[in-house]
Structure formats: structure tokens, C-alpha cells
Amino acid sequence: MSFPTVRMRRLRRREPLRRLARETRLSRDDLVLPLFVVEGSGVRQPVASMPGVERLSVDLVGEECKRVADLGIPAVILFGIPAAKDARGSGADDPNGVVQRAVAAVRRAAPELCVITDVCLCEYTDHGHCGLLEGEDVANDPSLERLAAAALSHARAGADVVAPSDMMDGRVAAIRRALDDAGFAHVPILAYAAKYASAFYGPFREAAESAPAFGDRRGYQMDPPNRREALREMELDLAEGADVLMVKPALPYLDVLAEARRRFDVPLAAYHVSGEYAMLMAAAANGWLDGPRAMMETLVAIKRAGADFILTYAAREIAARLAP
Asked: Residue 114: enclosing H or E segment and its boundaries?
């Protein structure tokens, strides 16, 4: 059948018709808000390259998460910036560390929220790399013990989910063993399974004070031209005990996300990262595009590609625009 019998515009004429025919729906349940936590009291530091994003001290994180929960957002992911750093990233598994105390604060203020914690060493090391160093090389196997210790400390603090983002080989298995052996077999692992060595992380590194002191992370994060390798990374993480897989960044890797959706019958996350967020906010500030509409369109595209949920700095603004 062809024109004029088939007229595709018929279901586009009015908003109620468009809503009825809509294939992909974004909801508040699809959103996870990243939060940066720092030491101190009463600290609220705007991140210059990420309008609307602030670094919060532990005492303010609980209050912020109460507001997040009131918006209907189901989860936050916490990133910690300690007062002191060293070569081993000692603050990463400190039971009195900034993330560990933040988890407890969120638990008290908003017990209905799902609390995810980022597990990595880059925010805690004085060299800014995601693992321990041997010379100027990031040593994979010695780093696994430190990552597992960090994840275990988060679970003991009350985290619902631990999310290793370091891209060391074998880290999911090491964390799974540590959690299970300590009685935390119920804690899921959200693996940053396909994390690319991307140019879109710049604003995050400002916010988290985690830029490498030398070199870069291309020796352990994925090479952007590779797709088959990403799928192999996902297969390996699942085999090691991952419960959820993530693709990061989101927009430049929608093809990877879509292929993962076809191949794996597990929950998939995508991280709409700092640079992706900052680009839209900068364009909107200059009047080059409709910011809220462009942000919504972007997140719908990520959902349409296959993400079950999306980590995004725009979660609060988007949740306020979505129907309950």
C-alpha cells in the first residue's frame, strides 16, 4: 500500500496522537544522578565547566538526596574527593572516608534511594591514575586488591550497588569474591564494561580532581574505534559476575549500546558524561539551541538505543519535566 492510502502524518497531527503512537518513553525511573562529595562542612562548590553541578560536603549530600528522592529519581551515584591523596589511593577504602560517610548520610536522609558508589582509585591517588603504579605503568594485578577493598568498604557503609570504573582486567571477579567472602553476596556489581578513552571526560576530571599527573588512560580504557572489543569486555564482565553492564560515554557509542542490547539479556546502563552535558549547556547558554528540549531528545535517543537507565547530570531538570 502506498500514498494516498498510507499517510504517515495522520498520527503526528496532535500531541495526544503522538503520545499514543510513541515507541520510546523516558521516565523518572530511568534516571541516575551523579553527585560529587568533598570533605568539610557547608561546602557547595559550583563546577565551572558543568553549569548546575556542584561539589557538596557530606553534611549537604543528605539534604540534596532528599530533594532528589522527592523528584521521583530512584538512584544516585557517588564520587568522592578526599582531603588528602597518596600513591596507593588510601582514602578509597577508608571506613571513615568521604564516600563511606556520604553513603551513611544518604541512607539517613533518603532511605528510599538506591545508592550506587563509583569504585576507582583515580580520585584518591596523587598521580590520578585508576590503579597502582609500577614506574609509570599502571599495574593491573596489584590494583585488583585495592579496588576490591574499596568496593567492600562501600558495601559495609551501606551501598546498594558498587560500580567499578577503573577498566583493570579481572576487577569484577576480584570484587565479586571480596563481597561474597565478606557476606555481601546480595550487593550487585554495575560494571563500567565498555568505558572508552574519550575526550568527553574533561569537565568530570575538573569536578573530581582526577586528571592524570602524567600520560593518559589509553593504556587501560578502550580505544574509541573498537566495537567488537567492547562486546568481548561485556562478555568477560558477565562471566566474572557483573549484574549490570554500562557503556560510557553514551552518544558517541550508541551503536555499541544498541548491539549490546541485541546481544545481552541483562540490564544496560549508559553514562551521559560530563562533556556531553557541558556541550548542550554551553550551546543553550549561547542561545544556539533550546536546552531543555535538546537534553530531553538526547536522553530519549540513549533510551531508544537500548539503555535501561541513564546516568546524567541533568536528572533533576529532566525529572521535573516528566510526568509522574
From this structure: strand 114-119
Distance CA 82, CA 84 (A): 5
Q: Grid coordinates representing 163?
A: 560500580
Cross-strand partners of 146: none
Distance, in Å, from the CA atom of 322 to the CA atom of 317, rounded to the nearest integer, reads 9
Could you give the dihedral angle defined by the CA atoms of residues 239, 244, 245 and 251, in that order, rounded to the nearest 10 degrees?
170
> How many secondary structure helices (H) and strands (E) does the chain include?
11, 12
Q: Do the Cβ atoms of 166 and 130 come closer than 8 Å?
A: yes
Q: What average pLDDT score do residues 151-178 get?
A: 98
Q: Please report the DSSP string for 157-176 in residue order.
A: HT-SEEEE-S--TTHHHHHH
Please give the single-letter amino acid code of residue 4: P
Count CB atoms within 10 A of the CB of residue 279. 15
Domains, in order of start, for the chain: 25-321 (3.20.20.70)
Distance of CA 47 to the CA centre of its chain: 17
Is 303 in the active site? no
Q: Answer yes or no: 85 catalytic.
A: no
Largest CA distance in the chain: 71
Least Cα distance to 100 among 69, 78, 130 occurs for 78
Q: pLDDT tens across 232-260, in order?
A: 999 999 999 999 999 999 999 999 999 99
Is the predicted pLDDT of residue 69 greater than 90, yes or no? yes
Beta bridge partners of 194: 247
Catalytic pick among 66, 85, 248, 303 = 248
